[in-house]
Amino acid sequence: MGKFSKAGGREMPELNTSSLPDLVFAILFFFMMVTSMREVTLKVQFRSPQATELQKLEKKSLVTFIYVGKPSPELVAKMGNETRIQLNDQIAEISEVGAYIGQEKASMKEEDQPFMTTSIKGDYETSMGVITDLKQALREAFALKISYSARPKAK
User: Model pTM?
Assistant: First the structure.
């Protein structure tokens, strides 16, 4: 039979950390690939109108989107089939647009507030009366830079 003895002079070997940065960057890369930025859940349907003269918006961080269209099929039973306005993730009335614009301006840096652009993403079948009312509410909220989202005209 063998005799087991404890060697009191043994020390724990040092942990090799040379591959640790590779591991950290691999995990960081994984999270960057699988994470998506929060996007608005659309509650209205809209098909952008076609246009010939289009320009891309330069600073997306300064753009506030307002969606205009008929409610999505899941919400038709609850809200009816009339045109609705969506601000962020909520259906709203024209009277709520001023407060929404004020809230969006307050969340921006003070030097960026004059450059805020409001982009209206409206369905091409939306009546101009709704768009005019929306533009009037934006004027009253001093959101004077307005753009309309459109898709390129098919050739």
Answer: 0.74
